[in-house]
């Protein structure tokens, strides 16, 4: 039986920097599985999913500026994974995207550039035994990841998955609430709406929420990117391969079994016994996850990993099985997976990916800001006048409908 592979399509500065940390984290997981002993088959399965036989990442690198990609390709990694240094799976130009979604989607994506993007994705796919999923990682705020990322998601990958029966999973990083660029909310609304309209799983991360989790601004973007990558790896990328749940596409199909609910969040709680005053018991992890995972969900994928995971008591999993936690229209909203293996230190973790109200909080913020800006016509000239304004209004309407289905309100922000 051929292995199933995941191709990471990393777009723009944010997508490329986060994805590099994702691969570092995956490599660490593989090394730990082999080091701890007894799990060589799991290590090989994880390796084959994300790396080829020459330890090259199954990745596509795209940016409209060369600096970030050239830096990634040139980086030396002793006895570790690497990108394809021959640039077969890379696309970078000298133009930039001007922090405009319209520039990336409607200008740069036309003509030869679109053909080049389709070609590098095709080459990466053909190097696989069987493409299970494409995982796209990009920023919504602006730059290449926003408009050009939307083009890749909606035009290239959507067509490819439709023809080849693979699936796509989109990770979109929402900007700081207090601003990165003046048009960031328009860009993010257009990016999110494009992803939602594909009907594929879309995972949102908020830079503001991540900054709070890492303890404020002291760590900078590096700490935020590491937190994002680690959460994605711990809650979705590793569990979908270690557990009997199967593959990333099978987990994604469960999460988006209702096409009206496709926006998800990730949360992972690792054991913290090596820290003072912390608990590494399954009950302690369950209480922490229960506290972080708030609001109703349509569907969820819960994963328990570590020694003793196959002997969990009902009290540990009961809070996650309560019907009151889910919207009533999905008959079997919760998919649980157990991996009784020691991945690394700490030796156990609980994680969840859920199409929930939490995932829509950054969406609600963006919609609220867009409505306020549209009412005054602010910054519309960046989007080509009326055509751009109509496109933004359509995107806001799409996202507003998504919020209403999950009963997420546009309450005023404090302060």
Automatic annotation (TrEMBL):
Gene Ontology biological-process annotations: microtubule-based process
InterPro entries given in the database record: Tub_FtsZ_C, Tubulin, Tubulin/FtsZ_GTPase_sf, Tubulin_CS, Tubulin_FtsZ_GTPase
Pfam family, one: Tubulin
Domain of life: Eukaryota
Keyword entries, A-Z: GTP-binding, Microtubule, Nucleotide-binding
Any single Gene Ontology cellular-component annotation: microtubule
PROSITE patterns: TUBULIN
Start and end residues of each Tubulin/FtsZ GTPase domain: 47-240
A GO molecular-function annotation: GTP binding
Family, as annotated: Belongs to the tubulin family.
PANTHER family given in the database record: TUBULIN (PTHR11588)
Designated name of the protein: Tubulin beta chain, putative
Organism encoding this protein: Perkinsus marinus (strain ATCC 50983 / TXsc)
